[in-house]
Write a structure and sequence with these properties.
The chain is built from five helices and two strands, in the order H-H-E-E-H-H-H. The chain is mostly helical and 131 residues long.
Length: 131
């Protein structure tokens, strides 16, 4: 096996680090609504009570997918997520953490805190996270 010089190894590592660094700098940050279009395409849409386009189905514990990612992202940008709950919060799975924040959001929005994300909860979330 041929020997690789320490200088070449260092050069290769430097180039690799620069490439990774440029990916991190140029990668777009997620914004509220980033998953909404994909969600609406995947489940269809309906009008909320005030005329907003919202997902055509309800979501609750056990749900998963791009619509749950949208829900989680919207929750994090509207009511905030506790530091202890933040790691992997936007994972597309409607589990206990998501349920807790859905109910918190519903309560603070004057909605019934039932943990079911239907037209009124979607409308309230989307209206707070879009221009």
């Amino acid at each position: 096996m041929p020997q690789i010089s320490p200088r070449r190894t260092l050069t290769a590592l430097t180039l690799a680090a620069a490439a990774v660094g440029s990916l991190l700098v140029t990668a777009p940050a997620a914004h509220a609504g980033d998953y909404l279009d994909a969600c609406l395409r995947s489940v269809g849409q309906r009008k909320s009570p005030n005329g907003w386009n919202v997902p055509a189905r309800n979501f609750s514990p056990g749900s998963s997918g791009v619509c749950v990612k949208e829900l989680q992202f919207d929750l994090s940008s509207t009511i905030g997520i506790d530091d202890a709950d933040w790691p992997d919060f936007v994972d597309g799975r409607f589990g206990p953490k998501t349920d807790k924040y859905v109910r918190r959001f519903q309560q603070s929005s004057g909605l019934e805190p039932d943990g079911i994300v239907g037209p009124r909860t979607w409308e309230s979330l989307i209206s707070r996270t879009t221009d």
